[in-house]
Structure formats: structure tokens, C-alpha cells
Amino acid sequence: MKRKEFLKKSALSAVAGVAGASTLMSSCKSDAAESSSAGINVNSNKKINWRMTTVWGKNFPVFGEGANLLAEWIDKMSGGRFKIKIFGAGELAPGLEAFGTTSEGTTEMGAGASYYWAGKTPAAAFFAAVPFGMNAQQVTAWMFGGEQEGYKLWKEVYAKFNLVPFPAGNTGVQMGGWFNKEINSVNDLKGLKMRIPGLAGRVLEKAGGAAINVAPGELYTNMERGVIDATEWVGPYHDYKLGLNKVAKYYYTPGWHEPGTQLEFFANKAEYDKLPAEFQEMLLTASMRVHAWTLAEFDARNGEFLKKIVDEGAQVREFPAPVLKALKKHTQEAINELIGSDPVANKVYKSYNAFREKANEWSTITEQAFYDKIQKI
Ligand code: CA
């Protein structure tokens, strides 16, 4: 895909336009028969038409494609009785209104990542990405293994907004971003103007930098014109498509700010509760399949595109340990501020952090030993 075409597809959220209210109001709801007289949601003839609005552009690589796959698989599983029409950012509503329109029931489903909604509930930050937090495997374990503590908390927090969350994959460890100068010490972060959103942006500011909000479609020109000195985006696949390797020389690793970004679908809870039980099960089953596909797709594509990036002259650099240590200290300060002001966020963080400590002990003697002792031989 060419950069221009990719940019069109990546027209995310805030930059996208508003659709006509009439389109929004003509919501297609269930037709066909009612539930059985026993009051159980069982009706094999019931036909459902839902609409999903996403924070990504239509068909956006991996993120948007995952939403398309969810719809395709549910259509097949239900024998065409449960259809979900996918809309990109700006088609029905601006991307960053996906949470709101689905919460109100104007759309039955939405897709995004929960940190976009941290302004509505600070706890949401912990269901997407936490700087120096858990990676994809660990987040999946917290959410869907053992007592499913993470998923239970996620559902509890979203229920207050009349929403039910579903997994939609994980990006894996992201890259630390593109820089026009080397980062050799914490002093190099002072005055650094970087596009880095959310909690991580606050961390950079504590380290003396400036977190600048730039829409993905404007990252290339902002870097080219020196409006910003650095930017993070996702990983080699998406960064290459955006042309970031043409506007900065140094590609830093690891993505301390997004070690395992969890993606999501969410359904309007009232509409979800009305679904026949078999359709509810299909939603979760197809979501889990998207969850597995997304991480696999990222890992496969990122390996392929990292090679292109390096072959075309970018230099991969590692953040020095003292820089990461300083950023970690500032991360804890930022988290303490966040949870200190919100009891729900505090409750979620306690669960997240206790799980992270246990998971790290296990990962150290298995995953880390694999990378250190096996992969390097
Ligand atoms: Ca990112």
C-alpha cells in the first residue's frame, strides 16, 4: 500500500468528519420473532443487524481489518442471521465518539483501545497500555486466564457506561519511536518535542520533554518540518506505511510506553442483553479469534517490515538503561497521581500490579530465559 493510500485509511478519530444525524438515527435493530415464551433468549430464526463504528479509518491495516474479520466470522457462524456492518472513523461518527455513540445505543458496537476513554474514566488506562506494564502475553493472562480478574474488572468499569467489552487483539511490544537525534542520557529528553499520547506523555513531561498531540495523518509532515523532534506510532509495519523512516534516522527500542497495547470491541449492554444466547457466545468466540489473529498479524508483519526499514538506512537504537530507569520512576509518579484521585482506577491498578509482579517472576525464568539463553545461542 502506498503512503498516500495508507494516510487516507489512517484518518483517525478527531480528524474525521461527522455523518448526517439521519443516518445515525436510522439504526437497524432486530427484526423477526420475539424470544420464546419461557423467557429464554432462544430463537433460531431471529435476525440481527448491528452497526459498529471504529476509531480507525475503514480497513485500517490490522486494526480495521480485525473488525472486518469479526463481522465476517460472526456472519458465517450464524448462517447469515447475525450481521455487523463496520464503519470507519467519520462514516457514522468521528472516531473518538465510538464509545459515546455505543454507550447511548446509537450504534450497537464500537472498536478502539480503552486508553482513548481515560477522560471518561481514568481506570480505562489500565485496560489498554501501561508504561513499564505488562506485555501481550501477560495482559492476556490477567484478562482471560486464571480468575479472569482483568476481564471482570473491565466489564465492571464498562457496565457503568452501558457497555460490554470484548478483546480485539494486542499490538505486542511497540517500538519506542523515531528520533532525529540520539538519546544518550536523560538530558537528551529535556526540551524534546515528541508525539506520545496518554499517560506516557505525562511521563515524558516529568522528564523535561513536551508531549505534543498530533493526529496520525499529520505525523509525517510534522516530523519533516521539525514541528516535533520525535514520534512514536506503533511498530515497523505501520511506521513504514506512514513513511516515518523517511523523516527520522533513529528508530528506538523498546516501546517502554506501550509494552502490550490491548485493543477492544465493545457492545451496547442493553442491545447485548437482548441477543439470543447463541449470538452472545458467537460475539465472544469471534472476538477471541480476532484477539489471536491480531497479535499474530503484528508479529508476522513487523518482522518483515523491520527488515525493509533497516535495509533502507534507518538505525535501530536501544534506549540506555539510565534513561529507562528515569522514565520508570516518572511513570510510577504519574500512576500514583492517577490512582490517588480515582478509587475505581486504584482498584483496577491494584489488581493489575499484583498480577504483573507474579507474571514477571514466571516470565523471568521462562520467556526471558528463552530470549537470553536460547535465542542468542
Ligand atoms: Ca503507540
Q: What's the gist of this structure?
A:
With 377 residues, the chain is of the alpha/beta class. The chain contains 14 helices and 11 strands. The protein starts with a helix and ends with a helix.
Which short descriptors sum up this protein?
377 residues, alpha/beta, D-Maltodextrin-Binding Protein, domain 2, 6-stranded mixed sheet, 5-stranded mixed sheet, 11 strands, binds calcium ion
Write the layout of secondary structure elements.
Layout: H1 3-9, H2 21-25, E1 48-54, H3 63-77, E2 82-87, H4 98-104, E3 109-112, H5 136-144, H6 149-159, E4 163-170, E5 177-179, E6 193-195, H7 198-206, E7 210-211, H8 219-224, E8 230-231, H9 236-241, E9 250-253, E10 262-268, H10 269-274, H11 277-311, E11 315-318, H12 321-340, H13 343-365, H14 367-375
Parallel strand pairs: 1-2, 1-3, 6-7, 6-8, 9-11
Antiparallel strand pairs: 3-10, 4-10, 5-8, 5-9
Helix pairs in contact: 3-11, 5-6, 5-13, 6-13, 7-12, 13-14
The chain binds calcium ion.
Residues 174, 232-234, 258 line the site of calcium ion.
